[in-house]
Design goal:
Blueprint (H helix, E strand, L loop, with lengths): L12 H4 L2 H20 L5 H24 L10 H25 L9 H81 L5 H15 L8 E2 H18 L4 E7 L7 E2 L3 H14 L6 E10 L2 E8 L3 H4 L8 H14 L4 E6 L5 E8 L6
Parallel strand pairs: 2-4
Antiparallel strand pairs: 1-3, 4-5, 5-7, 6-7
Helix pairs in contact: 2-3, 3-4, 3-5, 4-5, 5-6, 5-7, 5-10, 6-7, 7-8
């Protein structure tokens, strides 16, 4: 039989006399005090003092040897040391108990009944206490195993969360330059043509970057923040093609403060511009709506561009949607859904639905 690893904390008296241990020792001693008093003329209170003294002494030795020495002898297990210590202390504890209740150091010379009572108390203590100690060890081992299992589970959950956070930040790091470089390429094209709207375009770019840069490292965002970013982006794109792009943004008031996957709205809008509006000669309109639906939130981006059939299936819409789907899975598990459908007669509808509480995923 092995024993529990000793604690790394220094030995403290409050640990040795913890109430749960004292209570266990006194409750275990109580029936033996009652039984011994029935066969003796000694008052019950005296017997209770004697058995309590023996029980508490055994408890004290059990606790001390549980932690000292820090490293037990190689050939002597700690649990063996504890049992030997209990057996050794019981005669001494019984002697102290009789000395205290009789008031005499040489109480063994008083009467034969005192000698018999002392012998009975010592015998019962040596017989019962080691078994109670073994039972306590078993309970300690079970409690220790449960604590270790719980600690392992918590550590594993924490490591999984850290891995998910790291992967989520990596995905966001891939997305952020994607948006930024695409936008800079559009600005560069307009500046090279010598457009008189270049200063206004640069102002719009500054507004976009002012909204976008603080979001790059955010692990959480709100619908209001996402719409602010999208509004700046669409204003920038509208300056590039003022006659071909129109847009509307609408969100339920109750949805503005809700948690929203970072850059999710921008991902869908940017795909709508690149793969729907931009390739179309006539351009089109983009409508962004966010609805609060009880315990869930629905984001919809509808564009009047060339549509899926003319552009490509979802897998061909670039890495943005694939990255977004992975980020949704990391943030909400199976509780979030991304749907891409074709509109009639033309255009595309992209929807994200996610739970308000990530734990409900």
């Amino acid at each position: 039989m092995t024993t529990l690893p000793s604690s790394a904390r220094p030995l403290a008296w409050r640990d040795l006399f913890a109430w749960r241990r004292v209570r266990f020792a006194l409750l275990a001693a109580l029936p033996f005090g009652l039984l011994m008093s029935l066969a003796s003329e000694t008052p019950l209170r005296i017997w209770l003092v004697r058995v309590a003294t023996v029980a508490l002494s055994a408890m004290l030795v059990y606790g001390v040897l549980e932690r000292w020495p820090a490293v037990p002898p190689r050939r002597l297990a700690r649990w063996v040391m504890q049992l030997l210590g209990i057996v050794g202390v019981i005669p001494l504890a019984a002697y102290v108990a009789y000395w205290a209740t009789t008031g005499r150091f040489d109480f063994l010379r008083i009467e034969p009944e005192v000698v018999v009572g002392y012998a009975q108390l010592t015998f019962v203590g040596v017989l019962v206490a080691p078994w109670l100690a073994l039972g306590a060890m078993v309970r300690q081992r079970e409690a220790f195993a449960r604590e270790q299992a719980l600690a392992f589970q918590l550590e594993r959950s924490e490591l999984e969360r850290q891995a998910s956070d790291a992967r989520l930040h990596l995905l966001q790091a891939q997305v952020a330059p994607h948006f930024l470089f695409n936008t800079l390429a559009n600005v560069r094209a307009l500046v090279k043509t010598g457009s008189p709207r270049a200063p206004e375009l640069l102002d719009s770019l500054i507004d976009y970057l002012r909204a976008a840069v603080p979001r790059l490292d955010d692990s959480a965002s709100t619908v209001a923040q996402e719409l602010e970013l999208v509004r700046a982006y669409l204003a920038l794109m509208q300056m590039r093609m003022p006659d071909r792009l129109h847009y509307t943004l609408h969100a339920d008031d109750a949805a503005l403060a809700l948690r929203c996957p970072p850059l999710s709205v921008l991902t869908l809008v940017e795909n709508a511009v690149r793969h729907g509006i931009d390739p179309s000669e006539d351009g089109g309109a983009i409508a962004v709506t966010v609805q609060h639906l009880g315990t869930r939130c629905l984001l919809r981006v509808v564009d009047g561009g060339i549509g899926l059939q003319a552009a490509a299936p979802e897998a061909g819409l670039g890495t943005g949607l694939a990255t977004l789907r992975e980020r949704l899975r990391l943030a909400f598990g199976d509780g979030a859904r991304l749907r891409i459908t074709a509109q009639v007669p033309r255009g595309t509808c992209a929807e994200i639905e996610w739970p308000l509480d990530p734990q409900a995923a």
